[in-house]
Design goal:
By secondary structure, this protein is an alpha+beta fold. It has helices at about 20-30, 80-95, 110-115, 175, 185-195, 200-205, 205-215, and strands at about 10-20, 35-45, 60-70, 100, 105-110, 130-145, 150-155, 220-225, 230-240, 245-250, 250-255, 260. The structure holds biotin. Biotin binds near residues 47, 57 and 136. Keywords: ATP-binding, Ligase, Nucleotide-binding.
Length: about 260
């Protein structure tokens, strides 16, 4: 089932009004051997965020998951998540909202401005500092050690939603613009940009430069909670396949996964 989506990307679109989780549905389709499908929903009743967190996904959002079977080494898979963050940021900017990326894949709004106003305790992302969260990304995959089998990139964008109904620290496109967005057009822009950024190995080479251009994390003091402990220092770069490079008192570290918090300088 689908609706006319006006999409200039190599995906068939499965549109659902209400669904448990678009990622779950995309995984189901992967199990059926499908590929190149985007599942898009208006509302999710059982959506998931990173690190097994709950993701609040009421009616009015852009909740979508893209299933592909890219012919790339598994080591490059993180680039797809970063590509989705770039695509989401570009779609937001297209809709007139100045979004930026917090490593690895949170899309935030109002970073600098919020930091300047230290009295407003509400102006915080879920980790406590710097910007309000507009969108998040959850990637799931299966494959061999050297080759990706299937890859599901799930993107949750607070589109036309009253932020009062979202967890503290969240914002929405409609709140930022003062008017609702055309969600179909927004989703189409996002999917088209994602398709472009991930079209080939050569295209993937462009993901890190694009990510750097849209990052709010680089050049800032950060604290990253990793499986091996806390890494604190200045974020200086992002390196293949998506690691954050942090200058700490003990030297330069590369962080591959973790929760990143922007600290005040
Ligand atoms: C995060 O924790 O920041 C990631 C949130 C990802 C939510 C999206 S909404 C569409 C897709 N379906 C899910 O169940 N989760 C992702």
């Amino acid at each position: 089932p689908g609706i006319a989506f006006g999409l200039d990307a190599p995906y068939s679109v499965e549109y659902r009004g209400r669904i448990g989780s678009t990622n779950e549905r995309a995984r189901e389709l992967a199990g059926d051997g499908k590929s190149d499908v985007a599942v898009v929903a208006d509302e999710q009743t059982g959506s998931r965020g990173r690190l097994d967190r709950e993701w609040v996904a009421p009616s009015g959002g852009v909740w979508l998951s893209v299933l592909t079977r890219p012919d790339v080494p598994t080591a490059r898979a993180p680039l797809f998540t970063l590509a989705a963050a770039v695509a989401t940021t570009d779609a937001a900017r297209h809709a007139g909202v100045d979004a930026r990326i917090k490593w690895p894949n949170d899309v935030l709004v109002g970073d600098e401005a919020d930091e300047a106003d230290e009295s407003d305790a509400d102006n915080a992302d879920p980790t406590g500092r710097g910007g309000r969260k507009l969108a998040g990304i959850l990637t799931e995959m299966e494959g061999e050690a050297d080759r990706v089998g299937w890859l599901v990139v799930g993107v949750g964008v607070n589109a036309n939603i009253d932020p009062e109904t979202l967890p503290a620290g969240a914002t929405s496109l409609s709140a930022q613009r003062g008017a609702p967005v055309d969600r179909r057009r927004f989703a189409a822009t996002l999917l088209e940009r994602y398709a472009e950024l991930t079209a080939s190995s050569g295209a993937l080479d462009g993901v890190l430069p694009a990510w750097r251009d849209r990052a709010s994390t680089l050049g800032r003091r950060v604290r990253v909670d990793t499986a091996d402990g806390v890494v604190e220092g200045t974020a200086v770069d992002v390196a293949e396949p998506g690691a954050l490079v942090v200058d700490t008192d003990e030297g330069r570290r590369r962080v591959h996964a973790g929760d990143c918090e922007h600290l005040r300088d």
